[in-house]
Amino acid sequence: PDPISPAGRASDVHIATAYDDEQGLAQLMQRCEAITTEFENVPAGALATLAAQRPVAPAPTAVAIAQDRIAEKAHFATCARETGVGPAPYAVIEAEADLARVPDALLPGILKTARLGYDGKGQVRVDDRAALAAAWERLGRVPCVLEQRLALRDELSVIVARGADGAIVHFPVQRNLHRDGILAVTEVWPGNVPDALAQRAVAATHAIAVQLHYVGVLCVEFFIVDDGSADGALVVNEMAPRPHNSGHYTIDACDVSQFELQVRALAGLPLAAPRQHSAAVMLNLLGDLWWRDGQPVTPDWAGVLALPGIHLHLYGKQTARPGRKMGHLTVTAADPQSAIAAATVAAQRLGIAPWR
Ligand code: ADP
Ligand code: MG
């Protein structure tokens, strides 16, 4: 709907209507042989309208599950019987009476709206029952899940692409650092995640995709928590039915990107397994970088582009607000140490806090 959206600026045609506008959907069906989405909050009903006339992937039913944390967690719990990787302990809050039934073990916790949350929005950290009740009030008494707040050792994500024929390929496991609920840094190279853990995360992601009969690119986010073992235990956090921010490095560090696999899955083309050819560090560029001491500034792009292996992606968003994703920077190198070194200097020049 946004007349000046970044995707609109890059597209041949931009149909700027509401997602559920009948004429807009009719126009889309007229112009397109197949339809996908890279945003999970397109109403599933609009996708269902399109799917009656055109191939749509991912299917509206799969998107509907990913749109709703309650349905999503139920799906994860089902898959856990096969994979052994389940979600964090949680309770569903849909009515006042559910608050009283919350087990003590879920506190301190995080209350998350079932729908429309992103980048840590729609989430409140709650320490006790009084805070929980106040937070649910503040969130407008909408359906929520309360999750136990876990001590995270690390965060990972896995991106798979699955075709209508059931063929499935995946990217290397990504290691992610979040700050204030927003992805800040993704690092990817062999050995950055212990092999056994990476294999379990990939297997769990496969199962989650297969049991959804999923077609397209799917990202699943995981937590690693201590369980006494050397590697720690995997917990499944959430999924995104689309290319994902933690996979943006694939544009520059892999021979096939997550976006190409999305197109291939949609068009019924073969899904060749992607190969990562460079170690990668991806830094998100948040709107904060455009401000210093309350004054607007232009980030030092020349200083960053002077470094080796820099791939700068700016999305063309009009206003830089704190916490808003304005672009990202991928640093590629022949080895992890070189990628970290260049990314560290880039972060310093842009005003991003060090992460190692
Ligand atoms: P979003 O849709 O905003 O990405 P997430 O549920 O992935 O929401 O939460 C964002 C981040 O907040 C996570 O990546 C993690 O760093 C932190 N977080 C979320 N849930 C928990 C939890 N149960 N315990 C500890 N940290 C959490
Ligand atoms: Mg997330």
Main attributes of the structure:
25% strand, binds adenosine-5'-diphosphate, 15 strands, alpha+beta, single chain, four-stranded antiparallel sheet, globular, 356 residues, binds magnesium ion
Q: Please, could you describe this protein's structure?
A:
By secondary structure, this protein is an alpha+beta fold. 31% of the residues lie in helices and 25% in strands. The protein contains 12 helices and 15 strands. It has helices spanning 6-10, 22-31, 44-51, 60-66, 69-83, 96-100, 129-138, 195-211, 250-253, 258-267, 301-305, 336-350, and strands spanning 90-93, 109-113, 123-126, 144-148, 152-162, 168-170, 174-179, 182-188, 216-225, 233-240, 279-286, 291-292, 295-296, 310-314, 325-333. The strands form 3 sheets. Strands 5, 6, 7, 8, 9, 10, 11, 14 and 15 form a 9-stranded antiparallel β-sheet that branches. The protein has a 4-stranded antiparallel β-sheet with strand order 1-4-2-3. Strands 12-13 form a two-stranded antiparallel ribbon. The longest helix is centred in the middle third of the chain and has 17 residues, at 195-211. The protein is globular. The mean pLDDT is 96. The structure holds adenosine-5'-diphosphate and magnesium ion (MG).
